[in-house]
């Protein structure tokens, strides 16, 4: 039995949090939610989160500040972060990815597509890891 992937949704919009919680849970993800950046950072540190879905525009601490803090902390820097935002200018996308975001999901989005986007990313990472392991095992088995 495999462990459920832990997804953290950080968004100040309660409706978006609820929709994503419901959709992701039905697809087998274990979902945590935070309505602000500080709570989200705390959850990322304490719950061993696998993936973060992060709103860009939030009061007090915006998504870019949250992203910077997650990438600065040794306990959370490895967590893939997907930005959720209505900012769709290529400069914004470049900024988010240059600061460590894995991907960019533009609002409004189809809620049912989000679990698929996350799952595809995780499968790609898993496949790359398996290929890397296979590569190294071939090298060491020929010694």
Radius of gyration: 16 Å
Task: Estimate the global geometry from the Cα principal axes.
Answer: globular
Cα(first) to Cα(last) distance is: 35 Å
Mean pLDDT, nearest integer? 89
Instruction: Give the ordered list of helices and strands.
Output: EHEHEHEHEH
The count of domains is 1
What's the architecture, going by CATH? 3-Layer(aba) Sandwich
Task: Tell me the name of the CATH class.
Answer: Alpha Beta
**How many helices in DSSP terms?**
5
Number of strands: 5
CATH level-3 fold name? Rossmann fold
Strand content: 15-25%
Based on helices, strands and strand pairing, what is the structural class? alpha/beta
Q: Give the strand line-up of the largest sheet.
A: 2-1-3-4-5
Short description:
This protein is of the alpha/beta class.
Question: Can you characterise this structure?
Answer:
This protein is α/β, with parallel strands linked by helices and 143 residues long. The chain has a single domain (6-141), classed as Rossmann fold (3-Layer(aba) Sandwich). It is 50% helix and 17% strand. β3 (51-55), α3 (63-72) and β4 (81-85) form a beta-alpha-beta unit. α2 runs parallel beside α3 (63-72). The longest helix has 29 residues, at 113-141. The mean pLDDT is 89.
């Amino acid at each position: 039995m495999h462990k459920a992937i832990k997804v953290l949704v950080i968004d100040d919009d309660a409706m978006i949090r609820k929709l994503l919680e419901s959709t992701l849970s039905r697809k087998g993800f274990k979902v945590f939610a935070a309505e602000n950046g500080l709570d989200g950072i705390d959850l990322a540190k304490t719950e061993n989160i696998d993936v973060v879905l992060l709103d860009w525009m939030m009061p007090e601490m915006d998504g870019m500040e949250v992203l910077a803090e997650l990438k600065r902390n040794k306990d959370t820097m490895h967590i893939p972060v997907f930005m959720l935002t209505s900012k769709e200018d290529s400069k914004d996308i470049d900024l988010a990815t240059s600061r460590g975001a894995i991907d960019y999901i533009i609002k409004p989005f189809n809620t049912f597509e989000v679990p698929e986007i996350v799952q595809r990313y995780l499968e790609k990472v898993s496949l790359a890891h398996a290929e890397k392991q296979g590569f190294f095992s071939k090298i060491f088995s020929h010694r």
